[in-house]
Structures are given as C-alpha cells and as structure tokens.
Backbone:
C-alpha cells in the first residue's frame, strides 16, 4: 500500500504527487499541480444550500443546522437544494482528471448526486448508491473542511491507494470496480461533492 500525505502546508512537488497518486481504477487530482490552475483556490467555489450562502470552512452552526434538517450518518444533501455559483467541475477539468484513467472512447458526462457532511468517517459519503445504468465511476470534490483523521483507502485487487489527509480542493475519480473505505474521523468534519461519471451513449463494460 502507498500512503500519500496531501496537505496544503506540506512542502512537496505537487506535480510529482500527481504522478505518484495515480493507480489503476483511481486517480487523485490536485489542480494546483497544473501550472494553468496553480493560482486557483478552493475558496473560489461558492455554494448556496437551501437558499443559504455557505462559508468555507463551513461553521459549526451551519453544520448543526443542516444535520438537523437532513439527519443521517453521513448527512447527504440532495442535489436539488444545492446551487453552485462557481462550480468546482467543468469539461476541461474533467478531461484532466479522467485522462490517466483512460475511460472508453465514448463521450463522458457528469451529474451531481449529493453534498455530504461526514463527521464519523463513512464511505457512503463518497460512494453513491443506485447509480444510473451508464455510470462507470464516481468523482469526488473535497471542500475546505476542518477534519482530523478519516484517511481514505481505494482498493482494486492487490493495488491500493491511501490518502491520509486530502487537501482542500482535491478531486478523486474512481471506477465502480474500485472499493472505498474511510477511517474514523477524529475531530471536525469533511464535506464533499459527489458526482456520477457517465457515458452519454452505450453501456460501459467496467
């Protein structure tokens, strides 16, 4: 197993991190490793949830309010109450994220499933249930969050990727054939946006 310590404070070559954090059926993507996107920050992503503007990292009172409205572990906020004014994902970013995975040569698209607030460490925050038939994978965006613990492990066969501390603004893409486990969160919470990755025509074989 490989462990990737992905934190904004750590002095690492992010381009090298991008290369070494790619495994079969999974790709971890940090946009700041791309010179064209190096100046982008997670704070550029502006979101309204149920009509309320969200401040990042999300304050405790907003977390508690949303937890009360949408009880569950994790808290899953449906896409119909989420409005991105500056979305974290577009076609050009999607191409960069998916390039190492080399999906089948069909046109690909994406669809927001939910925003998840995870305070315990639960893989269902990241892996959506009941994907549409043409779904071949999942894409996850990590919002600025105050989170300690909760290491993420992506496995496929004997290959394994462990990300001990996702950076704010990171993306993770994986095929449906990969499995995800999440270690307990020791303190704080993690907030992610989860998307279906879909072929626009035909049924994928993966």
Residues:
């Amino acid at each position: 197993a490989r462990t990737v310590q992905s934190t904004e404070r750590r002095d690492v070559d992010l381009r090298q991190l991008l290369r070494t954090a790619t495994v079969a059926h999974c790709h971890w993507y940090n946009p700041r490793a791309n010179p064209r996107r190096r100046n982008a920050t997670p704070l550029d992503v502006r979101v309204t949830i149920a009509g309320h503007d969200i401040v990042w990292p999300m304050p405790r009172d907003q977390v508690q309010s949303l937890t009360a409205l949408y009880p569950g572990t994790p808290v899953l906020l449906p896409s119909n109450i989420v409005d991105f004014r500056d979305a974290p994902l577009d076609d050009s970013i999607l191409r960069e994220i998916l390039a190492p995975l080399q999906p089948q040569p069909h046109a690909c698209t994406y669809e927001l499933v939910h925003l998840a607030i995870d305070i315990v460490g639960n893989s269902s925050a990241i892996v959506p249930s009941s994907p549409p038939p043409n779904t071949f994978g999942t894409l996850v965006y990590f919002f600025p969050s105050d989170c300690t613990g909760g290491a993420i492990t992506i496995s496929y066969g004997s290959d394994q990727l462990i990300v001990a501390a996702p950076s704010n603004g990171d993306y993770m893409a994986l095929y449906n054939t990969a499995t995800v486990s999440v270690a307990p969160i020791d303190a704080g919470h993690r907030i992610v946006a989860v998307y279906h990755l879909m072929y626009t025509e035909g049924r994928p074989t993966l």
User: Anything to note?
Assistant: The first strand starts at residue 2 and ends at 4. The chain has a mean pLDDT of 79.
